[in-house]
Amino acid sequence: MDEQTTTVEITDADVLVLQQEEKSALEYRERKHDDWTENYTLYRDKVITNRLTQRQTVNVPLMKYVLNTLLKEMMDAPQLYFSNLSNDQQKEIYYNEYWKETFKINKLVIKDHIDKKQNALFGRAFKKLNIENGKVKISLVDPQCMLVHRYVDPSDIDSSPALIETDIFVTLDDILENEEYLEEGKNQVKMYFSEEAGRLESEENFDKASEKTDRLKSIGDETVEDPLLGETYVELHEAYRFEWNDKKDQRVIMRYVLAVTKSGTFKLHKALLSDVIGKTSDNFWDTHFPYTSWASDPEATDFWSDGVADIIRAINKILNVWFSQLVENRTLQNFGMKYYDSTDKKFVPQTFAPQPFAHLPVPGDPNKIIKDVITGNLSGTLEEMTFLITLAEKATAATSANSGAIEPKKVTLGEVEYALANAQKRIMIQQVFYTEDWKDLGTKYSKFLEAAGDQLDDLTVYKKGRMGKKTYKKLIKLGDWSDDEGYACEVKTISDQQDQDIEELQKLEILKNEMPDNVPLVSIRRRKMMEFSGLSPDDISQVEEFERQRTATPLAPVEEVPSEVAVNAGNTGAGNATPGIPEVPDIAPKV
Questions:
Q1: pTM (2 decimals)?
Q2: What is the spatial distance between Cα 61 and Cα 116, in angstroms, rounded to a whole number?
Q3: pLDDT of residue 421 exceeding 50
Q4: What does the CA dihedral 505, 508, 510, 513 come to, rounded to 10 degrees?
Q5: What angle do CA 99, 101, 103 make, to 5 degrees?
Q6: Is residue 398 situated within a structural domain?
């Protein structure tokens, strides 16, 4: 019996417009789909065989080698520091502690690595801000799930007239329990998935959700959750579109949630983005999306620019073909195949099992009756493959020296250092765009807190005291960091932080030369030097105690004062630095 599918006639004007936006944006992105598929499969060490060029299932792991080499050379996640614009230092401390805890909760060390890998594979990477269970959630979005308007400025994602995230799979129960969704839309979705066609589509959605989860896990993201068997899964699209607003007298972003099925699209939600997230003093969310995006090789007119994997793809495919042919060539040579004279009816050839000292009978002169099947020698293939690999390394700056391998030729140490320095400078070009994306994320995070601070739960943080002997607890509430003037985001890389530390030490050295007998200055200089050397607070305490006992004029004792200002200049952990802020009384309750 044929399956009967009910087609819903779309009459909602908003849905019709958004369907056209999706179609146009998908056509704009579709030209990259085949490239992305090949990039991903080559990275995953999977090849598709064919009868003509590649009959062997072999893959030269050049894609994985190059990408992992570049990821090793790229810096860790930059350090974000937020400066209070009303110069309230205590609020500034609490605010940065809130960010450090958010950084840990979202496992941004792992997600940052995945973010860079997605950029290398697809040429683009996306991050999204949201609130989930009373906490700020920073998630990665698969570039294959993002639709961007063709008239976007590639350097500014907020310039896109429309932005749509697809392939959001949620359970039917989640939709029906969401009080913000339209009742009419929920009823339509519930009715559709109660029919046979809807149940079959739910199974397909489950498979798609599983495939999406597996794809993210395969490139290292273990933070994603697997879909649950037995649940009814619905595909949602989250659309953002600039539309004219008479009250505001300008174009502002409207946010839609659509349930997409084979028989029709149902509108679940429509609202101003600034109403969904919240208000800010500068109406930030009227003109900004809760997404950030960066490209390692941006183009002036093409948002979907090439990634590192696009440079490697053609070379990797050629290497696979040549390697496949080389493997097959050796296999054919090993078969020992023979031609024989089929007109000689007295000779019926046999297949002999190889054995030592065997004598194999042939009726007549073996040189005249049988002949070896000549398989061409591909002896030059390995040299040509080496040339292609070297070409790929030069194109991407993923040199063998960067990967930890030693070149076979003799070179001086100076030549190696010069080559590595040049490669590092080429990699640094990508980090400019990467760092700018983190600054954009920090700005949107700050505006997110300003707009939706009342929706966030309090966070409990624990900090070691200045001497490292005691641990202090502090519950950070909205009133501890909320400020009318807001905060400005500053991005520092580890190298920037180290340069700042060195500059501070040089300035302290100048002051010491001017005031050699100033005991407090000597104490500060020593502490800075020990922090820069990476000594722990306990080690610093022991060194200072020894110096006080050794010297005739004891240095000023350093008391154990509770401080959340783990803001020493030597702290360079990702997301944990608070550069340039003096140590002040901290998060412990004031007496």
A1: 0.73
A2: 19
A3: no
A4: -120
A5: 70
A6: no
